[in-house]
Specification:
Its EC number is 3.4.24.-. It contains seven helices and 15 strands. The protein is an alpha+beta fold.
Length: 381
């Protein structure tokens, strides 16, 4: 079988069992092969990294959800629009059957330039402050916030643990995840805007952080609803982001790190929306479909065998930001299918109804990655 086959990876001497990872006595399988290791070091900004961690999920190996939550080949890769990053492309290239077309990779914000400390130190109370936008404070369970991939509105209630670890050493990390009520929390979903207070939803909509943002509500007890995140329409033009919020007359320029103050009858004055990074909202469409046109001279040309594994802009921190040739893989509304009976409200993966579909989810992600590698981002040798 193609894809993340342990048999094939062992055959090509790609794997290493590493002990002592974040204090755990249980061995962790990592991919140590040259291209994957190089891309992982570059993504995380950690030159001492020994390999890309894998996650043994009911016998199927995928990328560690802690280290690569938003990647196509993480356990979440088939339920949301996972990013087809240089990490997965490198793994396929290391198998020897394909050669990656560098420049087609999608940038993933999760873990990018987080340093060795992110990989070496277990999650703690300081983690949400150290890595904002990735992890959250478990005591902040009621605030409405953006998920790390900006595809949905969510709350801090999910944690994940390595299932192969013993009960006394399982690392617990909290992050923002949408409730398991289907597509209603996805910004790109075509639902009523009043389901998510203050949001403008639909194709092209992303979740943006908000500060001191008060939405005028007919249902709130005091007539107002305070939110820390809203869905807004996004346009990407010539490397710049424009945003249109609920009640706005047109798209407004929204440079990275700056704020816009909505002028709309839907909001009270004083609140503002933080402008996102270009690579967070402009490298794939909000529904997971492609925004790139594959160039004819991208097919296998370039310095694929050299140490930097793809010279030019493709080795930079943003992993070649732009539009990245990913098809929608049959996904709708961020890649989630219509089978919305996952029971993800439990702390550990695999509890409740999620047990029944967990293997299918993982296998789906493997299949998607295989198809994508064959058709989109790799060429046969």
């Amino acid at each position: 079988a193609l894809g993340f086959s342990m048999e094939q990876m062992k055959k090509h001497d790609m794997l290493l069992n590493e002990t002592g990872v974040r204090g755990s006595s249980s061995p962790v399988t990592v991919v140590k092969s040259p291209v994957t290791l190089s891309k992982a070091k570059r993504h995380y900004g950690c030159n001492t990294l020994k390999g890309m961690e894998m996650f043994n999920y009911k016998g199927a190996y995928v990328w560690s959800v802690r280290n690569a939550k938003d990647e196509l080949m993480s356990p979440f890769g088939a339920t949301v629009a996972g990013y087809y990053t240089a990490l997965t492309m490198a793994a396929f290239e290391d198998l020897g059957y394909y050669r990656a077309v560098w420049g087609m990779e999608e940038p993933m914000v999760w873990g990018n330039n987080s340093g060795c400390e992110f990989l070496d130190n277990p999650c703690s109370e300081k983690t949400p402050t150290t890595y904002p936008g990735m992890f959250c404070d478990k005591n902040d369970e009621l605030s409405i916030r953006c998920t790390s991939n900006r595809q949905a509105i969510g709350m801090c209630f999910r944690n994940f643990k390595a299932p192969e670890a013993s009960s006394d050493e399982k690392e617990t990390c909290f992050f923002v995840s949408q409730p398991d009520s289907g597509k209603e929390q996805l910004c790109s979903a075509e639902h009523r805007n009043d389901i998510i207070p203050g949001s403008l939803r639909g194709k092209g909509s992303w979740c943006l952080d908000a500060e001191s943002f008060t939405f005028k509500s007919d249902t709130a007890s005091n007539g107002n609803f305070v939110v820390h995140a809203v869905c807004a329409m996004v346009q990407c033009e010539e490397g710049k982001v424009k945003v249109k919020y609920l009640g706005g007359s047109d798209f407004e320029s929204c440079p990275e790190g700056e704020f816009i103050t909505p002028k709309s009858p839907h909001f009270k004055g004083g609140g503002r929306v933080k402008c996102p990074r270009y690579e967070e909202v402009c490298t794939i469409a909000a529904d997971g479909s492609s925004l790139i046109n594959l160039k004819k001279d991208d097919h296998g040309k370039g310095d694929h065998g050299k140490d930097d594994h793809g010279k030019g802009d493709h080795g930079k921190d943003d992993h070649g930001k732009g539009d990245h040739g990913k098809d929608d893989h049959g996904k709708d509304d961020h890649g989630k299918d219509d089978n919305e009976n996952d029971d993800n409200e439990n702390d550990d993966y695999g509890k409740g109804d999620h047990d029944g579909c967990a293997a299918a989810v993982v296998l789906s992600s493997l299949l998607l990655a295989v198809i994508a590698a064959m058709v989109v981002a790799t060429v046969p040798l």
